[in-house]
Amino acid sequence: MQTIRSFISVPLPSGITSAAAKMIKRLKEHSDSIKWVPVDNMHLTLKFLGEVENIEVHDICKAMRKVSVDIAPFELQFGGAGGLPGNDRARVIYMGVTDPSNSLTRLVNGLETALADLGYRPESRDYVPHLALGRVRSNSRRAGPELVQALEETSATIVGEMVVDEIQLIGSFLEKQGPSYHVMDSLPLGEPSS
């Protein structure tokens, strides 16, 4: 039986990924201890599933469909940079995501519940909407003071907005140049299945 490293995400329009690339370029000048996310691999993660057996994909898509049908398309705003769990001890560098309608959080909570019924362990922490830009390399303990300063300087930068109208199940395949992502299914929001 084959397993596929998988996650559920929102695809991003080119305007958002372009703005994220510019933000990375600006932040990159202040730290070489970060492994930055390639623009082609940027996505807004909703739920990381880990290794999924290929026979489970159908049930996962069914659970995604059950949740997505009840949520109408909604708007998100992107801007500002920060570090998780905090700027001074960042392990993840991110671009902020604002969810004015709270629909993204409702979508994630719905997925957590539906996937728990299939045996996927729910996240122990509350969902914090963010777009990962990079991760501190394992040999570095934290982001340096120059990067912390740069994060604080970009915290009020607004870069754009988008309408979320679909979610995707993505398979991640490790290749020599890094992971490549392949869409296994794409489900529209707010549309009953036919």
TrEMBL record:
InterPro entries named in the record: Cyclic_Pdiesterase (IPR009097), Phosphoesterase_HXTX (IPR014051), RNA_CPDase (IPR004175)
Name of this chain's protein: RNA 2',3'-cyclic phosphodiesterase
Top class in the EC scheme: hydrolase
Entry similarity comment: Belongs to the 2H phosphoesterase superfamily. ThpR family.
Domain Phosphoesterase HXTX: 10-94, 100-181
EC number(s) recorded for this UniProt protein: 3.1.4.58
Domain of life: Bacteria
Record-linked SUPFAM superfamilies: LigT-like
Organism: Stieleria bergensis
Function: Hydrolyzes RNA 2',3'-cyclic phosphodiester to an RNA 2'-phosphomonoester.
Residue positions of motif HXTX 1: 43-46
A GO molecular-function annotation: 2',3'-cyclic-nucleotide 3'-phosphodiesterase activity
Catalytic reaction equation(s): a 3'-end 2',3'-cyclophospho-ribonucleotide-RNA + H2O = a 3'-end 2'-phospho-ribonucleotide-RNA + H(+)
Keyword Ligase carried by entry: yes
Active site: 43 (proton donor), 130 (proton acceptor)
